[in-house]
Structures are given as C-alpha cells and as structure tokens.
Inverse folding.
C-alpha cells in the first residue's frame, strides 16, 4: 500500500510525515511514500539560494540524503516506525534552478534487513534532471523520545 499527499487549497502539498530538525527548517514535504520509493518536494525561497542566486548545492545534497533514507524505511500503517542513518552518500550535479518547486525521488536498490542502498534524482520545476545521488543507509527501529 502506498501513500500520496493531496494538494491543499494553496497548491502546497501536504507532507505525509511531520518533518523535524534541518529537514523542517529547509521546508521539505514528503508527498509520496511506498515500499522502496519516496518523493520529497521543496518550494524554493531566497534561503535556499547561494550567493550567485541559484539553488545551493548543500540543499540538493540534503534532499538527496533525506529522500534516499525515506525510500528504505516505509512501513505499513500501524507497524513500528523506522528511521534511516546515512552510512555513505555520493552526489553528482548536472544543472540548477533558482525558483519554483523542485522534487526528488528515490528508489531502494537492494540491501538486507538493516542496510539498504538507494538511488536518487532531483528535478527542476520544469522536470529537468539537475542532480543524482546514491546512498547507503542503515534502517533503525524508531525510539520514542520527547521530540517524537
């Protein structure tokens, strides 16, 4: 069973999971999530741009890292939540953008019960591929803390 978020009246997609920490600060929204697949979206603002006025490479690397982790930790509703810990990450930049809503997709490409591999792609609002990445992650059972 997969999940997808519906657009609200303001055309801003809802997130399937509440973002925390840096991902929340950046404004990521998890808009699609299924076994072995995830999609994150980000509406670009001035804070996402570098001093040249284009999308900052650190934002791109972070969305690759986040979407890659999500694709490997989906669980059915009611199951114990999992989190992903990044073990390695590679990023290749092919283009850039400066406004609009970018999106990143990731697919789980293999692994075992706790370690998995993911390939990720980041697209401009026009659907042009601007970056790719691969990551190795460790899936962990989520521990309940005061932060959630």
């Amino acid at each position: 069973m997969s999940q997808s978020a519906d657009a609200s009246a303001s055309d801003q997609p809802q997130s399937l999971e509440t973002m925390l920490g840096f991902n929340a600060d950046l404004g990521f929204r998890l808009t699609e999530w299924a076994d072995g697949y995830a999609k994150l979206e980000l509406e670009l603002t001035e804070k996402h741009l570098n001093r040249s006025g284009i999308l900052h490479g650190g934002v791109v690397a972070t969305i690759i890292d986040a979407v890659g982790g999500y694709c490997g930790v989906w669980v059915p509703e009611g199951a114990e939540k999992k989190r992903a810990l990044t073990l390695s990450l590679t990023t290749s930049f092919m283009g850039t953008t400066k406004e609009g809503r970018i999106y990143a997709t990731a697919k789980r490409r293999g692994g075992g019960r706790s370690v998995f591999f993911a390939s990720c792609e980041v697209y401009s609002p026009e659907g042009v591929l601007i970056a790719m990445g691969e990551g190795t992650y460790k899936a962990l059972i989520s521990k309940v803390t005061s932060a959630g």
In short: Residues 57-71 form the longest helix (15 residues). The first strand starts at residue 3 and ends at 4.
